[in-house]
Design brief:
This protein is an alpha+beta fold. It is built from 6 helices and 15 strands. α1 packs parallel to α5. It is globular, with a radius of gyration of 18 Å.
Length: about 240
């Protein structure tokens, strides 16, 4: 059963247009992977939220000024599907992350597999797993933020929508903002159940916008979720660096 699921996931990722995903990340700081999970996989993951076991901590957003709603960080070992996703997505994204760092003049390059990168995190004291599951109800929202947990930060992360808009909830759009010398911009990313969005954790490179000037400028990115108008919304987040 696990082998079949792993094989299906590999085929799904192989079918993604990674060249176009890279172009979208370069241009907008995000890219959608449609239909990454099936409805059955989404429902099974969402059902994990009500369980007590398998988590290292639960966060109520309002207590920390993060918004409204709550989320739980998974403990190791991760649920098999999330562990497979994390390891399968990382090597697809590492070349983009390495190219971005070169463009930004950041003297950090990422290894080709997740195990080697996590070893780097753990040697620096970042040993706590960061994949999480989020639950929002009516009136809940997530403030714009960045998921930075220590010295070692992988510049891309993934969120997968587990609920179906229009059926399970209304509102609750995934929102990204960018801040640069050229101003501020907001981007609403439309997702359906099972869709994933890959997006910038902190900053991305962009061509200089000054007339006649070549070079690269830094664009700071943040993400959040707009207010849930009705129903309940579940998502999972895959962050590739671990936390202190």
């Amino acid at each position: 059963m696990k082998a079949a699921a792993s094989h299906d996931l590999a085929l799904t990722l192989e079918a993604c247009d990674w060249a176009n995903i890279g172009r979208s990340l370069d241009a907008h700081g995000n890219a959608v992977l449609p239909g990454l999970l099936t409805a059955e996989q989404c429902d099974a993951l969402a059902a994990l939220y009500c369980r007590e076991e398998g988590y290292r901590t639960r966060i109520v957003m309002a207590r920390h000024g993060f918004g409204r709603g709550e989320y739980k960080y998974f403990a190791y070992p991760l649920p098999p599907l999330l562990d497979q996703l994390r390891h399968a997505l990382y090597p697809r994204l590492a070349p983009i992350a390495n190219r971005w760092n070169l463009q930004l003049g950041i003297d950090v390059q990422y290894p080709g597999d997740l195990a080697a990168f996590l070893q780097r995190c753990h040697q620096a004291g970042q040993t706590r797993p960061t994949p999480l599951i989020l639950q929002y109800g009516e009136g809940d929202y997530n403030c714009l933020h960045q998921d930075l947990y220590g010295e070692h930060v992988f510049p891309l992360q993934v969120v997968i929508l587990l609920s179906e808009p229009g059926r399970d909830f209304s509102g609750g759009e995934f929102v990204m903002t960018e801040i640069s010398a050229q101003g501020r911009r907001a981007d609403v990313v439309a997702l359906r159940q099972g869709d994933a969005v890959v997006f910038t954790v902190n900053q991305r490179p962009a061509p200089s916008s000054r007339p006649g000037r070549r070079g690269t400028r830094k664009v700071a990115m943040r993400h959040g979720v707009s207010r849930i108008r009705s129903g309940q919304r579940h998502t999972v987040g895959l962050i590739f660096h671990d936390a202190r």
